[in-house]
Amino acid sequence: QPMDDGTGADAEFGQLKEMDDFIFININAEGVAGSNADSFVGPSNYDRLCAMAEDAAKAADYNGYIGIAAHKLTDLNAQIGLQAFHDTFEKYPDIKISFEIADIGELSEANIQLEAALASHPETQCVVVTGAELSEALGPVIQDFYETSGTLINGYAVDDSEIVLDQLRKGWLAATYTANPYCTGYVAGYIM
After folding, report:
1. Model pTM?
2. Closest of 62, 15, 60, 43 to residue 177, by C-alpha
3. Which H helix or E strand runs over 97?
4. CB neighbour burial string for 76-108, b if at least 16 within 10 angstroms, e if fewer
5. Which residues contact 140 (CB under 8 A, 6 or more apart)?
6. pLDDT per position in the chain (192 positions), as tens?
7. Which of 21, 25, 116, 135 could join 157 in a cystine, given CB atoms 3.0 to 4.6 angstroms apart?
């Protein structure tokens, strides 16, 4: 049964470790100083999200406007994502951040925040996100924006939910970036 108290998976690791003598291996996120995970197997979230940002920069021809959206900042992965996005975009002086929204934890909030950001910043060419809620909201928001403005935005998600994969298959998302080997294989097979 999930034990998340709103601070993300790391809080669950800590709660599990307090219950018994567990050695916890995290397969979904990189281990960092201060993490409750004893060890980590999988790709570096920082590197994965830098790759996402690189793809968005390339889609904007290294000269354009990119929006950033991050889930709950109490989740280490949101912090890592924001750092990866900023570190990558700083390499390209002609890339401009059109908007940055953060600390979003609910799907309805993600929809509202993304819709408002795009309405206020129609120059946006790409949007990069962290978190499941933002990933699920991004495709439908891009679709609605396209249907009202005629402008197609490249969206980059981080989830493998059926909603995200359906939006990817329909072309409303440019890509999704998975965090572990299971998801990598699953997404590739699903898209095929």
Report:
1. 0.75
2. 43
3. strand 96-104
4. bbbbbbbebbeebbeebeebeebbebbebbeee
5. 111, 167, 172
6. 343 444 455 565 566 556 555 444 444 444 444 554 444 445 678 888 999 999 999 999 999 999 999 999 988 889 999 999 999 999 999 999 999 999 999 999 999 999 999 999 999 999 999 999 999 999 999 999 999 999 999 999 998 888 998 999 999 999 988 755 445 444 445 544
7. 135
Amino acid at 62: Y
Q: What is the dihedral of CA 101, 29, 61, 166, to 10 degrees?
A: -80
154 secondary structure, DSSP code: E
Burial 21-57 (b: 16+ CB within 10 A, else e): eeebebebbbbeeebbbeebebbbbbebbbbbbbbbb
Other Cβ atoms within 10 Å of 142 Cβ, number: 24
Residue 135: what residue type?
S
- For the chain, state the CA radius of gyration: 17
